[in-house]
Design a protein that fits this description.
The protein has 2 helices and 11 strands, in the order αββαβββββββββ. The protein is mostly beta strands.
């Protein structure tokens, strides 16, 4: 799927197939994209993310510069984070490292942040998603999927957002 298709989405929807190697994490129809960005720059550091960060014409160069082809896995510093109804959760609360085959950090690799579609916990209407955050609208738990989006082996990890 081209990033132009992602940018045209009007609400969270299942990610459509993209021209990505079948070796990577690929599409999971139970999740929809809410943001895109980069993995942490330092081990255990925050991600950098926003509603939309990449343009299709430059994406291959961005992936090459990030050494995305070296990534074999993603690792979340924390498997669970807490949120409160009505209080925006900044994407920087997510701490995700990209690792090569030896477990060495590969900094700032392009990623998508996705949320479970069948959940009423987050307010994921396009006109309600903040540029650098998402707001819980109901108590409960929701899984966030963070995955690499370059045409490379890549990886994915999951973080549960517990909302009170």
């Amino acid at each position: 799927m081209s990033l132009a298709v992602i940018a045209a989405a009007v609400c969270v929807a299942p990610a459509l197939p993209r021209a990505q190697s079948p070796r990577g994490p690929g599409v999971n129809e139970e999740f929809g994209t809410i943001a895109e960005g980069y993995t942490s720059e330092l081990v255990g550091g925050p991600i950098e993310a926003a509603y939309r960060m990449f343009s299709a014409p430059d994406f291959a160069a961005v992936c090459a510069a990030a050494r995305a082809g070296d990534v074999r896995s993603l690792r979340a510093a924390r498997a669970r984070i807490d949120g409160r109804v009505g209080v925006p959760v900044p994407y920087t609360a997510l701490e995700v490292d990209a690792l090569d085959a030896l477990g060495v950090l590969v900094p700032k690799v392009p990623i998508a942040i996705e949320s479970e579609i069948e959940s009423g916990v987050l307010d994921v209407r396009q006109d309600h998603i903040g540029s650098d955050n998402v707001t819980p609208k109901a108590p409960g738990s929701i899984r966030l999927r963070i995955r690499t989006i370059c045409d490379a082996p890549g990886g994915e990890t999951f973080i549960t957002l517990d909302v009170k």
